Automatic annotation (TrEMBL):
Pathway(s) served: One-carbon metabolism; tetrahydrofolate interconversion
Binding site for NADP(+): 165-167
Residue ranges constituting the Tetrahydrofolate dehydrogenase/cyclohydrolase NAD(P)-binding domain according to the UniProt record: 139-279
InterPro entries: Aminoacid_DH-like_N_sf, NAD(P)-bd_dom_sf, THF_DH/CycHdrlase, THF_DH/CycHdrlase_cat_dom, THF_DH/CycHdrlase_CS, THF_DH/CycHdrlase_NAD-bd_dom
Pfam families reported for this sequence: THF_DHG_CYH, THF_DHG_CYH_C
Phylogenetic lineage: Bacteria, Bacillati, Bacillota, Bacilli, Lactobacillales
Keywords, alphabetical: Amino-acid biosynthesis, Histidine biosynthesis, Hydrolase, Methionine biosynthesis, Multifunctional enzyme, NADP, One-carbon metabolism, Oxidoreductase, Purine biosynthesis
Descriptive protein name: Bifunctional protein FolD
Free-text function comment from the UniProt entry: Catalyzes the oxidation of 5,10-methylenetetrahydrofolate to 5,10-methenyltetrahydrofolate and then the hydrolysis of 5,10-methenyltetrahydrofolate to 10-formyltetrahydrofolate.
Length: 290
């Protein structure tokens, strides 16, 4: 029997726990955590993701601000707006939705966010802390993957993890998180030779490729755990992952669905990290910090 790693179910459970904690703070008169999401332009996928983040934040009871900026906003204007939220003591988390318009330099933006409010874990300081094995804020997608695996008691110590994809938001940070769990990690990517030879060695296979249903059962070892980070539309307009779910399912011990797997966990870790910052600043000593 294959275990379905139900990210939606765990997301609901974790977000309900956060909602209880926030309700408890409210009853004590503490300041409530605030998450600011900055959305630039009219990209339709970004709008959907930001909407989902806003819905989760509101459901938990956080103060949720979505700052919508015109596509034409200058980098200097954006940096000023970030500086304003950095200084605002009622703001616990700041997220600038990626991708950015071409005329804005991503590195400048990520460097501008106070690392303490960097709920995405993308600031180079947080990236470096993860790299040396002393993480503070984590990138949410890989953090969600690790959290989902732990919830299902999937052992990582000494296991062979193969990641397909070397992005700064998934592949590379996940490599470090897996190393911190004492896994043996291989990263593969578009220039990897004999990809299938690599993936067939995986006890845990993570697909972050960006190609609909690319991973079929012939890429997967019997009994492996398969994590699908993909979000693609197939020819019928249906949301599918990078894994051919129906083909792979009978061969593996556990697998994440799309939708309802890694995506909801990403949002949940964003909420967890907003709460993590809030816990430092909203409690007994600082509840008057309105
Ligand atoms: N600064 C920044 N931080 C991000 O975390 C960030 C970003 N920029 N840019 C874009 C990506 C993408 N991302 C997703 C989050 C949730 C779902 C999600 O909830 N997916 C649902 C389905 C959603 C649907 O129906 O389209 C699911 O998998 O079940 C998907 C994708 C966060 N991102
Ligand atoms: Mg994130």
């Amino acid at each position: 029997m294959t275990v379905i790693l139900d990210g939606k179910a765990l997301a609901n459970k974790m977000q309900a726990n956060l909602a209880n904690e926030v309700a408890d703070w409210k009853s004590k008169g503490y300041r409530i955590p605030k998450l600011v999401v900055i959305l630039i332009g009219e990209d339709s996928a970004s709008k959907v993701y930001v909407k989902n983040k806003e819905k989760s934040a509101q459901k938990i009871g956080f103060h949720s601000v979505v700052r919508r900026l015109d596509e034409s906003v200058s980098e200097a204007e954006l940096l000023d707006i970030i500086a304003e939220y950095n200084q605002d003591e009622t703001v616990d988390g700041i997220l600038v939705q990626l991708p950015l318009p071409k005329h804005i330099d991503e590195e400048n933006v990520l460097l501008a966010i106070d690392p303490k409010k960097d709920v995405d874990g993308f600031h180079p300081l947080n990236v470096g802390k993860l790299f040396v094995g002393d993480p503070d804020m984590h990138p949410c997608t890989p953090f969600g993957i690790i959290t989902l695996l732990k919830e299902h008691n999937i052992e990582l110590v000494g296991k062979k993890v193969v990641i397909i994809g070397r992005s700064n938001i998934v592949g590379k940070p996940l490599m470090h998180m897996m190393l911190n769990e004492d896994a043996t990690v291989t990263i593969t990517h578009s220039k990897t030779k004999n990809l299938k030879e690599e993936t067939l060695t995986a006890d845990v296979l993570v697909a972050a490729i960006g190609q609909a249903e690319f991973i079929t059962s012939d890429y997967v070892k019997d009994g492996a755990v398969v994590i699908d980070v993909g979000m693609n539309r197939n020819s019928d307009g249906k949301l599918v992952g990078d894994v051919d779910f129906a083909d792979v399912l009978p061969k593996v011990s556990a697998i994440t669905p799309v939708p309802g797997g890694v995506g909801p966990m990403t949002i949940t870790m964003l909420m967890e990290q907003t709460m993590y910052q809030g816990r430092k600043h909203c409690g007994e000593e600082s509840h008057d910090n309105k």
